[in-house]
Amino acid sequence: MSDLTTIARPYAKAAYGFASDNSAIEQWSQMLAFAKEMSSVKELKTAALSLQPEQLVQLYVDVGGEYFDEPFQNFLKVVIENRRTSALSDIYQQYKKLADKASNTKEVTVTTSTELSEAQKSQLIAGLEQRFGGTVKLNCIVDAHLIGGAVIRDGDTVLDNSLVSRLTRLKDVIKS
């Protein structure tokens, strides 16, 4: 676990608590995503080193325009005054985990050797939602090295039904 993840957790909890209390979970998710993208811009990182916190807050607010509401601007002010802009990406990730957990949503990554059709994605989502008992967001990755089959990841849980994995297991059985 990185230091930034540890630093990000209380900010994410505070942001999620406020957003939840004010029925603005999706809005705050979008604002955090935008602020996270801003913090990764090279020129803004460089400017952050030479600007005073008040100036940096104003820069974020100016770029964010009306996209950032007043409570979010106050949140950014606290983050920036504590020199935690480098943790905005981790704050966003932690926030998303809290929001997904509260909505019983799982973000599942599926790696296949070829692109899945919409019908295959729908069928896979239906099966995974039944297995996990909640909503599933599917992230699809194509990796031609798998030859065939799929690898499904949900956090630490991995369901590996790829052809490469099967061949490796068969090779191990033949060797023993």
Helix-strand makeup class? alpha+beta
| Helical fraction | 55-70%
Give the neighbour order of strands across the main sheet: 2-1-3-4
Number of helices: 8
Shape: elongated
The main β sheet shows up as: 4 strands, mixed
Query: How much β-strand is present in the residues?
Result: 15-25%
Low-confidence stretches: none
What is the straight-line distance between the termini?
A: 37 Å
Order of helices and strands: HHHHHHEHEEEH
Descriptive account of the structure:
This protein is 62% helix and 16% strand. The chain is of the alpha+beta class and 176 residues long. β1, α7 and β2 form a beta-alpha-beta unit.
List keywords for this structure.
176 residues, 62% helix, alpha+beta, four-stranded mixed sheet
Structure summarized in a few sentences:
This protein is an alpha+beta fold and about 180 residues long. Helices cover about 60% and strands about 15% of the residues.
